[in-house]
Write a structure and sequence with these properties.
Its EC number is 1.-.-.-. Pfam families: adh_short. Residues 7-191 form the Ketoreductase domain. Keywords: Oxidoreductase. This is Acetoin dehydrogenase. This protein has nine helices and nine strands. It is globular, with a radius of gyration of 18 Å. α5 (151-173) links the parallel β6 (133-138) and β7. The N and C termini lie far apart (47 Å). The strands form two sheets. It has a seven-stranded parallel sheet, with helices on both faces. A two-stranded parallel sheet has the order 5-8. α3 (65-79) packs parallel to α4 and α4 (102-130) packs parallel to α5. The longest helix is centred in the middle third of the chain and has 29 residues, at 102-130. It is an alpha/beta fold and 271 residues long. It has helices at 17-28, 40-48, 65-79, 102-130, 151-173, 204-214, 219-231, 241-253, 258-268; strands at residues 8-11, 32-37, 55-59, 84-87, 93-94, 133-138, 178-185, 197-198, 236-239. Helix content is 50%, strand content 15%. It has a single domain (8-268), classed as NAD(P)-binding Rossmann-like Domain (Rossmann fold, 3-Layer(aba) Sandwich).
């Protein structure tokens, strides 16, 4: 996919953050947009910012498997084709393995992993039928390394990475005209930390302030990096200097990165 003009692009979680910035960036490239979110107000604001583009908005809870499949069929009917799907919707949870509840664990997995998996599978037949499709799944730098108090988020984002990398290989081996990219953002200046669920013993304010300190990249910059990666058919798209650093750390040290993360966490997370 060397040109995005007149392509039909689906973006979940488009009501804010990276999703909103992606919608605007894709509109500037000439895409026709199918935007979804649970936040109808935020979604309307995003659509208003995509001036000049054909935009349709959909209220969608990506934790609802049947709703995702119905959404895929509706988008295909509304636009006649689907070329690009960006499974972006996500949430955060900060809690230790001992402390987090089953409900919180299920909540984050249903959105951050199953939302991506069902979104991919629901749209895949339409992407294949387009003759030039692309799946983009948003993981995280926490899909590259494990971090204390992020076990559930790690589980979801590692799962997204494995699922997506496997799919890319399958599409190549099956000679399907569908590219596949996995995105690993570092700290992005979005509202995800403010909206995160916290364990009972967590100092929510301290954690959010800590996140603000390490959020190095704007959503707009992140969106531009992702769009460039799509056009280059990159298998792994690293977003932000911290993402590049963490990827290098993992590659060079392997599991020996863990003592470094422990030292950082002792200072910043166990407060």
């Amino acid at each position: 996919m060397k040109d995005l003009n007149n392509r039909v692009a689906v973006v979940t979680g488009a009501g804010s953050g990276i999703g909103r910035a992606l919608a605007v960036a894709l509109a500037e490239k000439g895409c026709r947009l199918a935007l979804s979110d649970v936040n109808e107000t935020g979604l309307a604001e995003t659509a208003a910012g995509c001036s000049g583009a054909e935009v349709r908005t959909y209220t969608l809870d990506v934790s609802d498997r049947d709703a995702i499949y119905a959404h895929a069929e509706q988008v295909a009917r509304d636009f006649g084709q689907v070329n690009l799907v960006i499974n972006n919707a996500g949430v955060a949870l900060s809690a230790s393995v001992r402390e987090m509840t089953d409900d919180d664990f299920k909540w984050i997995m249903d959105i951050d992993f199953w939302g991506v998996a069902h979104g991919t599978r629901a749209f895949l037949p339409h992407l294949i039928a387009s003759g030039d499709g692309h799946v983009v799944n948003i993981s995280s730098v926490f899909g590259l390394i494990g971090v204390p108090k992020q076990s559930a988020y790690n589980a979801a984002k590692f799962a997204v990475r494995g699922f997506t990398e496997s799919l890319r290989q399958e599409m190549k081996l099956e000679k399907q005209s569908v590219a596949v990219s996995c995105v690993h953002p570092g700290g992005i200046r979005t509202n995800i930390a403010n909206a995160a669920r916290m364990g009972k013993s967590e100092n929510a304010e301290a954690q959010r302030k800590g996140f603000d300190k390490i959020a190095m990249t704007t959503p707009e910059k992140a969106a531009n990096i992702i769009v460039r990666g799509i056009l280059k058919d990159e298998s792994r798209i690293l977003v932000g200097p911290d993402a590049w650093g963490i990827d290098a750390l993992n590659r060079v040290l392997g599991s020996a990165y863990q003592p470094l993360v422990e030292r950082f966490s002792r200072k910043n997370l166990y407060v």
